[in-house]
Predict the 3D structure of the following.
Amino acid sequence: MSRAVRTRFAPSPTGFLHVGGARTALYNFLFAKHSGGKFILRIEDTDRERSEDKYIQAILESLEWLGIKPDEGPYFQSERLEKYQAAAERLLESGEAYWDEDPEKGRAVRMRMPDRVVKVSDLIHEEVRFDTSLADDFVIVKSDGFPAYNFACVVDDADMGITHVIRGDEHLSNMPRQVVLSEALGLEPPKFAHIPMILGPDGQKLSKRHGATSVGEYRRQGFLPEALANFIALLGWSAGDDVEIMSLAGMCEKFDVSRIRKVSSRFDNEKLGWMNGQYIMNLPIERLAAEVAGYLEGQGVEVSQFDDTWMRGFAEAYRQRMRTPEDVVAPSRFFFTDNLEYAPKAVRKVLAKDGALERLSAIREILAAEPEWTAEKIEACFRGYCDREAIGLGKVAQPVRAAVTGTMVSPPIFETLALLGRSRSLRRIDHVLEEGTEGLLRAAEKEA
Ligand code: GLU
C-alpha cells in the first residue's frame, strides 16, 4: 500500500531565497498538491555560524508571496535537538558511530563509513552506484552539540513521514551518507528526484553575475508573484501541452515528475518580462493599480496626491505599455510634476511645425468650453474640431501631447488629458502658447 504523499522544502537560512530554491520549493509543493498530499516546510538552521533570523524571515516572506503555502511547519531543526541526540545515542550504542576527540575542535560524534557499494535510485536519473570504501567516516553531531546536515536531514525526513523529495542535484553526492544513515537507523527514506541546476543565459551556473537571483529582488523590481512562479516552474518542467501561462492551481493539476527535464534549463530574462506582461494584461484593475502605485511609491513618486479611482484610470492607461511597473516610471513623470521639461525633439518636430500652435490654441478654446472633463467628452471635442477643419487627428493630438507631456509619446491623448485634469492640461497648453517654441527651446538648453 502506498503512503499518502508528503513532500518538504528544507532551506538552510544562510541566504535569501534564490530562484533555484524557489523552484525546489515549488516543485515539492506542486507534487504534493497534485497527489492530494501535504507539503512541509522545515528550516535547517543547524549551522549556527551562518544561520540568520533575517534570512528565515526573508525565506518565509518570499514563499508566502509566491503562494507556496506549507500544510505543516515551519519546523526548526534547532528546536528538535533531542531527536538527533536520541538517534546519535542509538548509533553510538550499536557501535556504528563513535566519539571523536579533537584537541582543537572538541568532541564530536562520527559515523563509520562501511566499505560497500551504495545503490541510489532516483525518480529522474538512472540508478547511481557509489563505492564508499574511499569515503571517510563523517561527523553527525558537531562539537557544539548540533547535528550535521546529512544526519538531521535523514532523521527528520523519516520522523516527518516524508515520502518524496525533489531537490537540486548538488545533493546527489550526499546520498551515500544519507543511505548509510537511514539503513543504520532502520528508517525508510523518501524517494528522491534530483533535478539539474539552473543556468544563466550564457550557459554558466546562474549567479549574481547574471543579475537578480533572489525572489525578493524580483519582487522589488515589480514582478508579479504569479508570473514569477509560473516562469520558475518552467525552468525544468513543462506540462507537455504547449500551454505556458498557468496559474498555481493549474500547475498543481498538471504537475508530473516524469516531465521534469534531465538537462539544465537556462534562465531567460526576456521571457520572464514577456510572461509578466501577459499577467499584467489580465490582472484585475484593482490589483494592477495597487501594484503600480506600490512600485511608483517605492521609486519616490508622489502617488498619494491621487485617489484610488485616479490610480485605476492611470494603471489602465499604461496596462498595454508595461511588462513591469518599472516601464511606467519615466514615461509617466509628467503626471507627477508640474515642472515639465520640454524635449527639444518634441518642440522641433511637433510644436514648431506649420500651424501647430494655431491648432493648439484653437483646441484649447474648445476644451476650455467643455463642461465635462471626461475622456469621452474630450474625444468628442477633438473629433468635432478635426471634422470641421478636415484634418487628421494627429495634426492636433500631437501638439497637445507635446504641450502637456513635454514628449512625443503618452497613452491615448483623451485619457491622458482626462487623467491630467482640466486646469493642469489648460495651464500647460497656455504655457506653451505664451513661451512659443523659441522660449521652450531656450529653457530646455538651460536645463541641459
Ligand atoms: N538544507 C539543505 C539545503 O538548503 C536541504 C537539502 C535537502 O533538500 O535535503 O540545501
Q: What stands out?
A: The mean pLDDT is 96. The longest helix spans residues 422-447. The first strand starts at residue 6 and ends at 9. Residues 80-195 form a domain with the Rossmann fold fold (CATH 3.40.50.620).
